[in-house]
DNA sequence: TCTAGGATATACT
DNA sequence: GTATATCCTAGAA
């Protein structure tokens, strides 16, 4: 065995599987965000599955729009959406192509480039909060709509890539209801996280907003 | 420690 | 007009 970390991207076949197989298998894998100031690496600790046509909680449930077009494309690409008027969230598209299923990257541990991440996340009180939540993760990595459609499996230069390497053992994977999803979409235990990991975001049930005055 | 409310793009009614 | 795959701050407890 070779002791050096494997810098090879995951093969596209990895994502060309049902999203419920891919999601737990992503836990523990490492994302590399290449920025002009240097790389930021993140180890995934929490994800959520969204299964296009059968899933009322999915952005793709009501068909293709300008925003969600990447979900309908080939697996292994990054779908980035802008929400609540302020935040970005990153997903990895799963197969088969056209099914429009994806995994939302909910939280992770910054394993390299923490100084760069802190600069983008000034409100974080400690390093465990740098990517504790989907919008925080995107902010820490500097992910926005400009990265929508990025191929995370590309071998060459790419702003965002996911590496091969060990996922966490099955006995450390936990699952439960998805966060912040309303209606029938909240019943599925399609949120997956690493047991006892301090970077996993706290569960919040869906709370409807009150009307503005 | 907890809760309420604000910020406001995008899609849908 | 209303809801949302969210986060942050202020003020109460």
Task: State the main characteristics.
alpha+beta, DNA-binding, 3-methyladenine DNA Glycosylase, Chain A, 13% helix, 213 residues, 8-stranded antiparallel sheet
* Count of extended strands: 8
The pLDDT mean sits at 92
Low-confidence stretches: none
Radius of gyration: 16 Å
| CATH 2nd-level architecture | Roll
Count of the domains: 1
For the terminal residues, how far apart are their CA atoms?
63 Å
- Helices and strands, in order, run as HHEEEEEHHEEE
Shape by Cα distribution: globular
CATH evolutionary superfamily: Methylpurine-DNA glycosylase (MPG)
Helix content: 10-25%
Family: Belongs to the DNA glycosylase MPG family.
EC number: 3.2.2.-
Keywords: DNA damage, DNA repair, Glycosidase, Hydrolase
Protein name: Putative 3-methyladenine DNA glycosylase
What order do the helices and strands come in, and which of them pair?
Elements: H1 12-15, H2 19-26, E1 30-35, E2 38-51, E3 78-83, E4 87-94, E5 101-112, H3 114-120, H4 134-141, E6 160-162, E7 173-176, E8 191-194
Antiparallel strand pairs: 1-2, 1-6, 2-5, 2-8, 3-4, 4-5, 7-8
This protein binds a DNA duplex (13 and 13 nucleotides) through residues 48, 50, 57-59, 62, 65-67, 81-87, 89, 91, 104, 106, 123, 133-136, 139, 178-182, 185, 204, 206, 208-212.
Family: Belongs to the DNA glycosylase MPG family.
Keywords: DNA damage, DNA repair, Glycosidase, Hydrolase
GO molecular function, one term: hydrolase activity, acting on glycosyl bonds
């Amino acid at each position: 065995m070779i002791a050096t970390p494997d810098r090879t991207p995951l093969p596209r076949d990895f994502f060309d599987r049902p999203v419920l197989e891919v999601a737990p298998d992503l836990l523990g894998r490492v994302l590399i965000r290449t920025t002009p100031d240097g790389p930021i690496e993140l180890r995934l600790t929490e994800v959520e599955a969204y299964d296009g046509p059968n899933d009322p909680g999915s952005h793709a449930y009501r068909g293709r729009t300008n925003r969600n077009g990447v979900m309908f494309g080939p697996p292994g690409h990054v779908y980035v959406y802008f929400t609540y008027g302020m935040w970005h969230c990153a997903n990895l598209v799963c197969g088969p192509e056209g099914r429009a299923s994806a995994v939302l990257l909910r939280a992770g541990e910054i394993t390299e480039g923490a100084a760069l991440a802190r600069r983008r996340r000034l409100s974080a009180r400690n390093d465990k909060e740098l990517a504790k939540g989907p919008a925080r993760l995107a902010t820490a990595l500097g992910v926005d709509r400009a990265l929508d459609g990025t191929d995370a499996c590309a071998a060459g230069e790419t702003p965002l890539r996911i590496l091969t390497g060990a996922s966490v053992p099955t006995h450390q994977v936990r699952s439960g209801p998805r966060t912040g999803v309303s209606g029938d979409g909240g019943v599925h235990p399609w949120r997956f996280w690493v047991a006892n990991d301090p970077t996993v975001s706290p569960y919040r049930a869906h709370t409807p907003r009150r009307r503005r005055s």
